[in-house]
Design brief:
alpha/beta, 9-stranded mixed sheet, two-stranded parallel sheet, 8 helices, 11 strands, disordered N terminus
Amino acid sequence: MGKQFLVCILGPGASLNKQMPNPGSARGAAKGVAIVEGAMENLGKKSDPLLGSESESLRPIQLYLSRRFFLFVLGELLLLSSTIFLLQGACGCPEKCFCHSSSNFVDCSHQGLAEIPPNLPPETLTLLLQDNQICQLPALAFRMVPRLKTLNLSNNSLSKLAPEAFHGLQHLEVLNLTQNSLLSLESRLFRFLPQLQELDLSSNNISHLPKSLGEPWENLTVFAVQQNQLQHLSRELLESMPRVRLLLLQNNLWKCNCHLLGLKLWLEKFIYEGGITDGVVCASPDTWKGKDLLKIPHELYQPCPPPPPVELESSQARQHSSEHGELPKPPEDHSLGQHDISECVVKPKPRPANLRHAVATVVITGVVCGIVCLMMLAAAIYGCTYAAITAQYHGQPLAQTSESGKTGGKELFDSLPA
């Protein structure tokens, strides 16, 4: 069609001997320019078929029109090629990735990537980046995919996450960060994920979780932190997940001391309300090693003592030394004492008495005493009855003997002579 258009404008004398190229590339645009230049030269050399001979007076007009047309065609070719290039960049797929446009699914797994690939399709809903070598996430790492719902970053080398790494993912529902090298998480990291439903942090080296990871997760239903280095877990963090129904906590370094009492109480309520958990198995101290946290009685836990006011003690010591003209002594190292206090290791001891147990003891004792008294009363009645029957049985022959003796004596007395 472009060839016919050029022939119509330049006239039948300006024939195009070459095939018009595809203007979608830079090479095609250059070929198009060369064809137009050749057409212009042919137009200047040949005679005008309408006049029958070369007209020198019309030659400047032809050259002017030819140049204008040349500039017009050149601009159109450049505009078309740039448009096609931009469309390919916007709608294309990153290198080493497989894109499924029908389901808005992008798979970049097992490609040895060291960073998030650029030029991700903005309509992506599922992004798979597992089994790569990504070691960190910068701020706004996923700004190109604002509609993302599922993100899999498992089995990478992630050790550093910028506080705003997930900023802009307002629709993200599933986040998988398992099998990485995370040591800790900042409290601001997940505050930009209001629709998050599943968070998997398993198989990392996380030793501490903050009391809050942003705003309350109203939609979170699955929270997994098994196979980490956790020793304690804040009850405030769990209370910020009111809809969680699956909680995975096994294979951590749980220290079953007074700091874990809040977790125990929360888990009891969680299970009572229908929640599912794999349990907490104590790793220390040795007394409770290998035992389920939920099976340790409440009475063996005591509230953690507050840390001693070190600053207050040091200020009082300095004031006392200044009053007596003594040189202030360097502060002693109380780290060992604080460490001992903060450990709060629970040791087995007799169960303290409480009101419930006392009432049960009194009731049981009363019942036993009542039964004993009834048995003693029954024994006494039995003994008295047996004694009466025995006495009655032995008393009748004795009375008969005495009466016969008296009768015989009287008869003997009467038979004597007067």
